[in-house]
Write a structure and sequence with these properties.
It is found in: Cytoplasm. By secondary structure, the chain is α/β, with parallel strands linked by helices. It has a single domain, classed as Rossmann fold (3-Layer(aba) Sandwich), CATH 3.40.50.300. Helices cover 44% and strands 9% of the residues. The strands form two sheets. A four-stranded parallel beta sheet has the order 4-3-5-6, with helices on both faces. It has a two-stranded antiparallel sheet with strand order 1-2. α12 packs across α13. The N and C termini lie far apart (58 Å).
Length: 301
C-alpha cells in the first residue's frame, strides 16, 4: 500500500467515525469543537459581522439562504456559486476534511457566520463588537423530530439510538449543543440587551413574506416587490430541497438515502412520532421550564 493509499484509508476511517460528546462548561459539544475550544472561544468577531444562530434543525439553512439572497438583491444566481456551508462558515464545526473557523478568519468583511452555540458559550468578541445576530427558535416537538432524523443521517454525529431513547436525551439536554430549553430561553433573554432579531420558525412558515421583510429591515436593506417575490420562490421548501447549493447533497458524511437533510420542513410532523404520553410529557415540561419567560411556541398551524 502506498503512502497516499494509506492516508486515504485513514481519512475514510475518520470520516466514518461518529463523534463523541465532550462537555465544555457543562454543555455537550462534538469532540472536534471541544478539542479546539481555545481557538473557538477566542474568535475575533468584527463589528460588521452578522451571526445566524439556532438550536440545531430549527431553520438555520433556510434563514441563511434568505439572508444571502437579501444581501444580493434577491438574485439567486449570485447565491448559486458555492454551497451554503462555504458561503457562511459554521464557526464551531471541525472535521478531518475542513475547519470552518479558519475559513471564517480568512473571509473579507462583511462576513455572515453560523453557529449553534448557546448564548453563554458565544465567543465574547461578538458581544464586544455589538454584532447583529439573527436567532431562530422552533417548537420543541418538531425540533426534536428533525434533530433525531439529522443525527441518523449524519455520519459524524453521535448515534441517536431509537426515537424513545432520543427523546429522553433531548429532554435531559444530553445532545450536541445541550438543552433546547436553555438554548431558546438564553437567547430570548439576550435580545433585551443586544441587537438580536429573534424569529420563530412557525411564524416564518405561516407568513414568509413578513419574515423576509423583518430580516431585510434588521439588515438595513431595501427590498423591492420583485426581489421579495424571487426570494420567497427560491427559499420555498421544495425549491431548496432540490437546490444542491442549499440541500447539503455535496456533504460526503451525510446519508441522504437514510434521511434527506431537507426532510419535510413542516409544522406538526411530531404527531407521527410522539405517543400521547410523550406529547403530554413535553407539554408539561415546556409549561414548567418556559414559565415566566414570555416565550410561547405553536406546535401546529
Amino acid at each position: 500500500m502506498t503512502n497516499l493509499e494509506s492516508d486515504m484509508e485513514g481519512l475514510d476511517h475518520k470520516l466514518s467515525q461518529r463523534s463523541e460528546l465532550v462537555e465544555v462548561d457543562g454543555i455537550p459539544l462534538l469532540s472536534g469543537a471541544a478539542e479546539r475550544w481555545g481557538r473557538i472561544s477566542t474568535f475575533n468577531a468584527r463589528g460588521d459581522d452578522l451571526l445566524i444562530c439556532t438550536y440545531p434543525k430549527a431553520g438555520t439553512t433556510w434563514t441563511q439562504e434568505i439572508v444571502d439572497l437579501i444581501q444580493h438583491g434577491g438574485d439567486p444566481q449570485k447565491c448559486a456559486q458555492v454551497p451554503i456551508y462555504k458561503r457562511m462558515p459554521f464557526l464551531e464545526m471541525h472535521s478531518p476534511l475542513f475547519s470552518r473557523l479558519e475559513e471564517a478568519e480568512l473571509m473579507t468583511s462583511p462576513r455572515t457566520l453560523k453557529s449553534h452555540l448557546p448564548v453563554q458559550l458565544l465567543p465574547p468578541s461578538f458581544w464586544e463588537q455589538n454584532c447583529k445576530i439573527i436567532y431562530v427558535a422552533r417548537n420543541a416537538k418538531d425540533n426534536a423530530i428533525s434533530y433525531f432524523h439529522f443525527q441518523r443521517m449524519n455520519g459524524r454525529m453521535p448515534d441517536p439510538g431509537t426515537w424513545d431513547e432520543y427523546l429522553e436525551k433531548f429532554i435531559a439536554g444530553k445532545l450536541p449543543w445541550g438543552s433546547w430549553f436553555d438554548h431558546v430561553c438564553g437567547w430570548w433573554k439576550a435580545k433585551d440587551s443586544h441587537p438580536i432579531l429573534y424569529l420563530f420558525y412557525e411564524d416564518m412558515k405561516e407568513h414568509p413574506a413578513l419574515a423576509i421583510r423583518k430580516i431585510a429591515q434588521f439588515l438595513d436593506q431595501e427590498l423591492s416587490e420583485p426581489a421579495l417575490n424571487r426570494i420567497m420562490q427560491h427559499t420555498e421548501f421544495n425549491s431548496m430541497k432540490v437546490n444542491p447549493m442549499a440541500n447539503y447533497s455535496t456533504m460526503p458524511t451525510y446519508n441522504h438515502a437514510l434521511s434527506p437533510f431537507m426532510r419535510k420542513g413542516t409544522v406538526g410532523d411530531w404527531k407521527y412520532y410522539f405517543t400521547v404520553a410523550q406529547s403530554e410529557q413535553l407539554d408539561d415540561l415546556c409549561a414548567q421550564l418556559l414559565r415566566g419567560s414570555g416565550l410561547t411556541f405553536r406546535t401546529q398551524l
